[in-house]
Amino acid sequence: MAAAAAAAAAAVVPTPPGVDRRRPRRGGSMEAGRERLQDDGVRTLTSAEQTKVEDIVQEVFDVYKTNHHDSQFLLHRDKHFHYLKRGLRQLTDAYECLDASRPWLCYWILHSLELLEEPIPESVASDVCQFLSRCQSPSGGFGGGPGQHPHLAPTYAAVNALCIIGTEEAYSVINREKLLEYLYSLKQPDGSFIMHIGGEVDVRMAMEEAVAVTPVVALEDYCSDTVGYPVGYHSNTYWVTSRQMRFEGGFQGRCNKLVDGCYSFWQAGLLPLLHRALHAKGDPALSMTHWMFDQQALQEYILLCCQCPAGGLLDKPGKSRDFYHTCYCLSGLSIAQHFGSGELLHEVVLGVPENRLQPTHPVYNISPDKVVQAVMHFLKKPVPCPKEESAAN
Ligand SMILES: [Zn+2]
User: Fold this and answer.
1) Can you give the pLDDT at residue 44?
2) Looking at residue 199, what is its pLDDT?
3) Whole-structure pTM over 0.85, yes or no?
4) Rounded to the nearest whole angstrom, what is the distance from the C-alpha of residue 307 to the centroid of ligand 1?
5) Ligand 1 center to residue 216 CA distance, Å?
6) Contact 181, 390 (CB under 8 A)
7) Residue 257, pLDDT score
8) How far away, in angstroms, is 314 Cα from ligand 1 center?
9) How far is the CA of 298 from the centre of ligand 1 (A)?
10) Ligand 1 center to 262 CA (angstroms)
């Protein structure tokens, strides 16, 4: 969208102090600033698909405008809650293919529930703890299910799920010493990580894992040489702000892809991190009330195009709901609603006040309170002393 492009451009063009050129300026209505794809008369498979999606989204917007004269965007909280609650106990056959991702399912559901401020009954929480402890390998990492090989991705999901539960029982599931040993066993001499023993280096996930388990294993040294690489903040900002779709308002995964609800977190979640990094560098053009994307347009996309009427959220109109998209659509919605941290907070909640979700921590993607709670809990414990010599063997 024009605002996103303007925001992105402003990120690389020097801006006079005090002039906020990065703040999205799309305006306050559903009409303002929306731009359809211009294919310059060259129709390709990609442009045809994009036009098709824009037509469907246009239809959704039109139906909404016909039925609602005064905009009252509504998050169907109860429907989503029931869908999630059911999923914690029983899954349909469609989830059979995710048998190696069961800690992920726990995390997606628990995080969605915490965003909706729905408490998890004690007995359910305890059952999840016991289930995840069965997924933990004697070598310290977590597998995708009981008896499966440990892998960094479900390890991240399991640790997050346990920190969301946040009880003594949950924390005690994590064998920190073994977990640390396991992480060292995956670390390569160049600072990268393999995802599992015998696996390939995967920069995207390995970075995330290393950061995500840091509060649990209390390891500043461990991560400092992996996350300290210089980052091109401005080019990153340009790239990510350009991923917000000019017509739909949601985000795409990369150039020439279609909008997808889950990128509401994968892309928009990067902007709080970039904001903080640019702020730390003393950038005078940064807004102190808004992230560098159109927060309202993203909320419109999620609320109008990504909600399944029966509960749960989805990629785009016409797709099926699932727990993964429910988690990341809600996470993105939360990022779009809450600017800032600490004393600098500014909320932009589209629609009725009841649409407000809990804030989420952009690094860990669990509630900031739960991050603090976990850090405080593990700080009281002695730091594990792993056998580092096993690294990269
Ligand atoms: Zn998706």
Assistant:
1) 95
2) 86
3) yes
4) 13
5) 29
6) yes
7) 95
8) 7
9) 15
10) 4
Q: Residue 55 has what pLDDT?
A: 97
d(CA 52, CA 36): 11
The whole-angstrom separation of Cα 371 and Cα 369 is 5
Residue 249 Cα to ligand 1 middle (Å): 15
Question: What contacts 284, CB < 8 A, 6 or more positions away?
Answer: 15, 17, 18
Positions of the chain with pLDDT lower than 70, given as ranges = 1-32, 70-71, 203-231, 342, 386-393
Helices (H), 90-219: 102-115, 122-135, 152-165, 168-173, 176-186, 203-212, 214-217
For residues 277 and 7, the answer to whether their CB atoms sit within 8 Å is: no
Q: Are strands 338-341 and 344-347 parallel, antiparallel or unpaired?
A: antiparallel
Q: How many A from CA of 78 to the centre of ligand 1?
A: 23
Looking at the chain, how many residues does it have?
A: 393
88 CB neighbour count, 10 Å cutoff:
19
Residues whose CB falls within 8 Å of the CB of residue 139, separated by 6 or more in sequence, listed in order: 150, 178, 181, 182, 185
For residue 388, the CA-to-ligand 1 centroid distance in Å is 37
Q: By the 8 A CB rule, do 267 and 240 touch?
A: yes
Tell me how far the alpha carbon of residue 180 lies from the centroid of ligand 1, in angstroms: 31
Per-residue DSSP letter, 313: B
